[in-house]
Specification:
This protein has one helix and eight strands. The strands form three sheets. The chain has a four-stranded mixed beta sheet, with helices on one face. Strands 2-3 form a two-stranded antiparallel sheet. Strands 4-5 form a two-stranded antiparallel sheet. Helices cover 9% and strands 50% of the residues. With 107 residues, the protein is mostly beta strands. It has one helix at 70-79; strands at residues 2-5, 11-15, 18-22, 33-40, 45-51, 64-67, 85-94, 97-106.
Length: 107
């Protein structure tokens, strides 16, 4: 299977044979996120999050998986019925910074 990276950053997957870097495609998939305060506790706010329909999502292609951010995947799942969406799973960190993932999750 071939993968297209529709995030804004390179995705590095630390696989069995070493790291694989998938560079981002232009344009990336995006959505708008808004919040509404629904309650205010004396110590913190409680919000409801609203996600818009995804923008920049190409048509499905046979044998091609699309890597998107978690928030874009949430938007796609809320508005569309797609079978080609993946997100990075099991973060790899170096000195506290995310440098990649160990695998992809089909959403």
């Amino acid at each position: 299977m071939k993968f297209k990276n529709l995030t804004r950053n390179p995705v590095t997957i630390f696989g069995k044979n070493g790291p694989v870097v998938i560079q981002p495609e232009i344009p990336s998939v995006s959505c708008k996120v808004t919040e509404e305060i629904i309650d205010f506790d004396s110590e913190f706010e409680i919000v409801k999050v609203f996600i818009s329909e995804p923008e920049g999502l190409p048509p499905e292609e046979l044998g091609v998986g699309l890597i998107v951010s978690k928030i874009a995947a949430d938007s796609i799942n809320a508005y569309l019925n797609r079978d080609d969406i993946y997100i990075p799973r099991d973060q790899v960190r170096q000195n506290g910074q995310v440098v990649g993932c160990r695998r992809l999750e089909k959403v």
